[in-house]
Amino acid sequence: IMVSHNIVQAIDGERPASISKPVHDTIRNELGFKGVIMTDDMDMAGLADFISQEEAGLQALQAGNDMILSSSYSTQIPYILTAIQNGEYSEKQLDQSVERLLTWKANLGLI
User: Fold this and answer.
1) CB contact at 8 A, 23 and 29
2) Less Cβ around it within 10 Å: N or C end of the chain?
3) CA-to-CA distance for 10 and 25, rounded, in angstroms?
4) What is the pTM of this model?
5) Which tens digits make up the pLDDT trace of 23-56?
């Protein structure tokens, strides 16, 4: 599932869906989706005007995305690694995302 940067008033009226934990909780818990969830392009104005790219990358992962689509990865990756070291994003959650991505690739015959 690709999550857009729209604000979904019925679920979270304050944050774009791509960085909203309630939106991701709905996808995982209410809809029972077990596959990969990814953001739309993080450099789009709907998100870029709302939050810095570094913080957006971290919040996207914290919200429940498995994959971030971004051109700002050179600054996002170090920021996220620091957040993991500081306990702001767990290695367990990262491992779950990696497992979903590898399972998806295996199912597609890519690995």
Assistant:
1) no
2) C
3) 13
4) 0.92
5) 999 999 999 999 999 999 998 988 888 899 999 9
